[in-house]
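User: tokens in, sequence out, please.
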């Protein structure tokens, strides 16, 4: 029996042992939030106008088996983590949030991320680092109209706005990582209409309009001449889908349909991106689909020595299905995603397909999660015999 198979069977045996006592109902203290990621209450005034909550997340990872032979091409083009066998700390985050009187809220979240084992900041500046993720103040006038200013995640895309602690597979789809702006500094207006009325879920019709510095764009390179403008609209029907991609505490029917777009102004070009996404939960099934596309239009088309002599496009999609085998305890998930970094590339060296499957174990209503994933990457332009399969496990602890 090979080493990867022995390691996988050992992990499954350990997970089964841990799952046995967790099947019983566990009553969490009131200081915990309703959803994983809501934080741990430290201080609260009797009327709830002044609060202080602590947040934290830890994601250790163990790679049993990796065949990422192409250590140069994949991290640049398709985002191949190239995870060498062994342990790594994927994410570690800590922060606080609270209310300053009824109309004001704030949040400060700092974190460490290790996206790739190929530590080369000249190729991937985001390879490794500690940074401030959320640092904002928010004025909550009514559910219909709110204002947020500071550092925050840009409200574009379905899966990219999903917290990493709530992913059904260990990583987001490559198209979500490559074509959705990340954290950025700016200001946004947002709100919701019709929440909890008639056929609407508590979120109802949600809208977001924001202006940001442009540092969060993924249309590399980013020389940040002007602002990044982003808008998003989504409608939620039926039951509340919750804070994760999985059917944790869910046994009804809910739908969320969203879409959005944005413009980013660079010195040498103008970037445009749009996308649409769908999320459905029915009984124990969770379905997610998304399509994203982006275009870069150079300012100097037709000039041979210009940084971008011609315009180019990127696009991709994801299709994901999850099923909760044992309610709130054991889930399986599968995903197919595709990404093309340059539609004009006739040799197919710019596109990649991912096929992933995994099993998840949940404890403490999803605040502790153990994931086992198999990842197969297929690159049409790769050299003959190049292997990309990976088997890995990841644990998540989130407050």
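Assistant: Sequence out:
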């Amino acid at each position: 029996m090979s080493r990867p198979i022995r390691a996988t069977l050992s992990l499954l045996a350990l997970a089964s042992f841990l799952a046995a006592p967790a099947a019983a109902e566990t009553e969490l203290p009131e200081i915990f939030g309703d959803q994983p990621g809501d934080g741990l209450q430290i201080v609260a005034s009797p009327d709830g106008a002044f609060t202080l909550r602590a947040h934290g997340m830890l994601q250790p990872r163990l790679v049993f088996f990796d065949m990422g032979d192409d250590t140069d091409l994949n991290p640049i083009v398709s985002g191949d983590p190239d995870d060498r066998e062994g342990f790594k700390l994927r994410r570690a985050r800590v922060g606080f949030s609270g209310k300053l009187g009824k109309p004001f809220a704030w949040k400060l979240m700092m974190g460490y991320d290790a996206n790739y084992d190929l530590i080369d900041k000249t190729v991937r500046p985001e390879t490794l680092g500690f940074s401030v993720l959320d640092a904002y103040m928010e004025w909550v006038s009514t559910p219909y109209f709110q204002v947020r200013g500071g550092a925050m995640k840009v409200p574009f895309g379905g899966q990219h706005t999903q917290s990493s602690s709530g992913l059904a597979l260990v990583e987001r789809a490559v198209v979500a990582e490559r074509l959705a702006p990340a954290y950025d500094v700016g200001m946004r207006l947002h709100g919701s209409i019709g929440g909890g009325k008639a056929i609407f879920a508590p979120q109802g019709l949600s809208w977001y309009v924001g202006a940001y510095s442009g540092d969060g764009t993924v249309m590399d390179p980013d020389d940040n001449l002007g602002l990044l403008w982003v808008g998003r609209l989504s409608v939620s029907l039926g039951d509340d889908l919750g804070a994760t991609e999985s059917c944790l505490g869910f046994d009804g029917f809910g739908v969320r349909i969203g879409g959005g777009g944005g413009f980013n102004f660079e010195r040498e070009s103008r970037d445009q991106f749009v996308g649409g996404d769908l999320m459905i939960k029915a009984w124990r099934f969770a379905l997610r689909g998304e399509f994203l596309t982006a275009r870069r239009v150079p300012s100097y088309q037709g000039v041979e020595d210009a940084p971008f002599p011609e315009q180019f496009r990127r696009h991709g999609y994801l299709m994901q299905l999850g099923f909760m085998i044992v309610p709130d305890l054991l889930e399986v998930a599968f995903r197919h995603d595709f990404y093309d970094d340059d539609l004009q590339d006739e040799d197919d060296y710019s596109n990649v397909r991912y096929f992933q499957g995994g099993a998840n174990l949940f404890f403490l209503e999803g605040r502790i999660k153990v994931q086992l994933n198999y990842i197969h990457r297929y690159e049409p332009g790769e050299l003959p015999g190049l292997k990309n399969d990976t088997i890995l496990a990841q644990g998540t602890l989130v407050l």
